[in-house]
Amino acid sequence: MSTQNTSTKGSVYFTDVVLRDGHQSLIATRLRTEDMLPICEKLDRAGYWSLEVWGGATFDACLRFLKEDPWERLRQLRLALPNTRLQMLLRGQNLLGYRHYADDVVNAFVDKSAENGIDVFRLFDALNDERNLITAINAVKRNQKHAQGTLCYTVSPVHTLDSFVELAVKLEDMGCDSLAIKDMAGLLTPFSAEQLVSRLKERVDLPLFLHSHSTSGMSTMCQLKAVEAGCQHIDTAISSFAGGTSHPPTETMAVALREAGYEVGLDMALLKEIADYFKEVRKKYHQFESAYSGVDTDVLLSQVPGGMMSNLANQLKEQGALDRINEVFAEIPKVRKDLGYPPLVTPTSQIVGTQAVLNVVTGERYKSITNEVKRYLQGGYGRAPGNVDANLRKQAIGNESVIDVRPADLIKDEMDSLRKESSEFAKNEEDVLIYAMFPDIGQTYLEQRELGTLEPEVLLAQGQSASSVPLATEFNISLHGETYNIQLTGTGPHEQNQRHLYLTVDGMPEEVLLQSLNEYTGQDQTGRPASKGPGDISTSMPGNVVEVMVNEGEQVEVGATLFIIEAMKMETEIKAQVAGRIAKVHIKKGDRVTPGEALIQIEI
Question: Which of 68, 324, 347, 462 is the most exposed place for a label (fewest CB within 10 A)?
């Protein structure tokens, strides 16, 4: 006997996030386009109001890890999903990067996103500073697309129902077509969801959307209470990419709401086929699975959002520091308080999270402060929701003045200079925007694409670890214009710093004695010496060198910036701890560095 309620209370519309936030939250944004396209025909017929397919961290991940053109992904999805609205997440004046861009860059990015297939732009600012949304809203409206203003929901002494409602009124006045409640960390409770939606319905006349992560285990209840209070749109993920730090399962919410008397408009048979497809696809990405795939009530204290949690775990794992993740989670709310309670969503989640990691791994709070934290404390990202720690601000920016206007008002137009800088490797406006979002990674990607040398990271087979991947035993080398085929046939005894290798060169057997010149000399495999004394400048965490600021022979004072590294997508200045002469520089821009290496040596 069916228990389905045949009466109707109106329609509830679904946005499925599997192609963006679902895999961002659970497998560190690693889903490849080749695994999206085969299921698009069924997704297109399932009955969704929209599909979230782009934005967030996908642009970065395409370039950094997958070696895909994010614009080409969007174009392919547009062709494969002709009947469904395509939606993206855009960080207002940050776009998809980690800084504020000039208005002309924002306009160009929105124009190209609309041209290549985006219908719905979910626009948010990490600080809920509406000034950082006005240019993007106007650009979306000019392209005759759907502008969705967003309330970044969080819990703190300065975030109240009244503050969220007032922001919603401002967004409506700015021309938004709808409003989204973005509960990125899963902090919303069922009662708060009902209260917030009810208050919003009283003050604004716009469709409401609820985006809530399942981290704390409350998201399904929140969506039900929000719908009962008048919210008609919810974000879900197909069940095989739902739960944990992701979202409520599409099928679960569809059945629950249908039985409660709402029309959901989804084809349940197709949803089953879609879920089965993604269940198999997910197995390919097992190496990126988040350790936080179940209910984690610790989020109610750490307030770490779903996408940040899986990426933070993955990044700490790469750095060999995953065992300290609980220390980092304990430090995050302390840093957040010091910074005036910013909601933890990109880029503030990375800003707060990276600083928390630095505080933990260095063993001293704010011994090293990232450039992004300094920019934040100066007002470079907009208004902090609450009061920042005055002593920390003084330590970070000294006597520099605090920005009290819309940050983008201080940024001159950039597109012409970006086109000029990228003219040798950017073929079109989309390429220029790739370079604009991520200059170093973007340039490398575009140059490798031109040379045909793009290599996406390796997907390991089930049960295979990175250490078990076999090394090549056959390869070609080119020397003085001649090419030789080399086959490694065996290895001989390993004595101190000598190894015997047996191989064939164009079929002829050879024995090679390989002697390491630095294996036992106190140097690492890069040839850099180990950091031993106060004049040996190292780094507290692994990263890539962004810029070297000094040359050999220069005199430096204590506190002088020596070089800048990028770690966990944030930049950190490494400063001189002693005064003296730069005796040796062991690094250059682009180098990978790790703790314990003497990267620059100062003669005291």
Answer: 462
